[in-house]
Specification:
The chain is an all-alpha fold. Helices cover 82% and strands 0% of the residues. The chain is globular and about 55 Å long.
Amino acid sequence: MNILVIIAQLLLAIVPGFLLLTYIYRKDPHKEPVRALALAFFFGIVVASLAMLVEVVIKSFLFGSGEASSLLGVVAMAFLVAALPEEGLKLLYLSKLVKHKKVQPHFDEYFDGIVYAVFVGMGFAVVENIGYVLSHENWLATGIGRALLAVPAHYAFAIIMGYYFSLYHFVDRSSKNACMMFFMPFLLHGIYDTLALSGAVNTTVGGIAFIVLIYFCVKMHKQANRRIQHLIDLDNSKER
């Protein structure tokens, strides 16, 4: 394969995630150290590697050597094969991250939960995106589609996780917040993947699901932006 094509593929796979990282970094009123953020991104890469292995095991158990082709199968694929291990491992490594000696002294503001969760999430998304773009023959369409939907979706999942993670650590260590930091991104991820994979059932279901997916993504990102602003407001009120 032409080296220029490979470079174009890698750029298409990597740039969307880094644009979102830049955006959330600039939103942070008090910037986190670069080495702490780099560690968070690396943790996301580790999560992607582990998730791939876990997903192969779960998928093999549920479907054998086959693929999901029924609506029930698509739901199982979305929630159990993808959302469960991916969001579970992201939360596990986010919890490990904030206890790390390079991060713990700096994890001291409400907005930090979102920042570190997004860096973990984008580390995951970039690795996943590289795999998809490099493995598809129609890599340009795949890359553009994922840049517009899949990568921003992982960004939104991370914001929701980081929001409840911060509420749990800084506001209220309740069982509700402990549950929500996993359940909400898991639920959103499962719904997203169910809609995205519904074309496997038939073209009619897939077409309807795609329209619903666009609406779902718009609503999800509006909620994510509200969560961002809420934590920024909490930090601002703390400083007064």
